[in-house]
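This follows on from our talk about sequence and fold. I would like you to pick a protein and set down its sequence and fold. Go ahead and set the record down below:
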Amino acid sequence: MEATEFSTEQFRQIYPDGIENHYWNHARNAIILRFLKKCGLENHEILEIGGGRGVVTRYLHEKGIPCQGVELAPVEPVKGTKGYFFTGKNAFDMPESFRNKFTAVMLFDVIEHIENPLDFFDKILRSFPNAGNIVITVPARQELWTNYDDYNGHFRRYSMGDMKALTSAKIIYKQGGYFNHMLYPIFLLYANLIKQRETKLHAPAGIMIGVHRVLSWILQLDNILLPLSWRGTSCIALFKIIRT
C-alpha cells in the first residue's frame, strides 16, 4: 500500500462541526501561521493539499494568507470556504492554469499517510511548476504510537531526523522543529501505560470553548518559548524545491 485515505466515518470522527475550536486545532492553526510568516511565505500563493474539511485553509485565508485548498475525499467543507476550498478533487488533476499559480504547497498531517513521501514530493515538483516551497506538519515521535495512529492509517510518526532525511537532489530540508512540547509526556504516558486514545474528537461548545482557548494559548506560548529541538507531539518543517 502506498497511501491511506480517510473513510467518511473517519472524517466524521476527526472533523466534526466546530472542531476549529478544539485547543489542538486552534493552537496548530496559529503555529502554522507563525511558521509561514517566519519563513516569509505570508504573501505567497499557497495551496493546501489534503486539507480535510478546510479548517486550516479557512483560518489562514481569514488571516490574509492568499491560500486555497483541495481535498480528495468528497466531504462537506466547513462553512465560508466556497470558491477557495475544493473537495472531491485530486490536486494533481486540477487544470494547469490552477496549478501554475501556486508558489508554495502545504501538507498538514498528510505524509504520515504516504508510504513513500519522496515520490509524493516528486509529483508535486512535476505538477506545480512554479512551487518553490513545501510546508509540512506531521505527528511526531514513534514512541508515541497508539491505536490512534492505527485507526488513522499512519505509516509512521516522524522524528526531526526523519524529516531532515526527506531530501533529494531537487527537494531539501531548510528549517523546522517540534511543537506541542508540553503534550509529549502526556502522550508518552498514553503510549506506554494506557495504550489507548480516544479516536473520536469532540468539538467544544459553550463554556468549554473558553477552556479550550486557554489551552490553545498555552500551547502557542509553548511554541514561542521552548526550543524547537525539544521533543513534541508534532513536527513542522519547510522544504525548498530546487529547479534548474
User: Anything to note?
Assistant: Strands lie at 46-49, 67-71, 85-87, 104-108, 133-139, 171-179, 234-241. The mean pLDDT is 92.
